[in-house]
Amino acid sequence: MTISVSTLFVTVHDPDAALGFYRDALGLEVRNDVSQGEFRWVTVGAPGQAVDIVLSPPEGGRSSADADALLSLVTKGSLQAAIFRVDDVDAIFETVRASGAEVLQEPASQPWGVRDCAFRDPSGNLVRIA
Alpha-carbon distance 34 to 126, whole Å? Predict the structure, then answer.
């Protein structure tokens, strides 16, 4: 049996702002953009990779109270969205910083062997790039 990751969910409060970060700054491609009434989610992914990242609102399939609690955690920066791997951390850092994203950590070599940096997406999610 083979198992692989197919889909991940990242909670965002504004799909358009999220696209400015995930598509425009990180370079992910839009794979799906679905609206159903006031509910909208956007699926993005890295070109050439079969993993989908669904940028979804906190109310997606949740009660109002749960959506509010989740959004509170996201906007406080309590949740980590993803760790992306790139060939050139310094180059992507400059691209993402130029987009206006909140910088949490400039590129640094970590004691565990990776060089990485960190940002918050427009919703407050922690995003690391190694």
Answer: 24
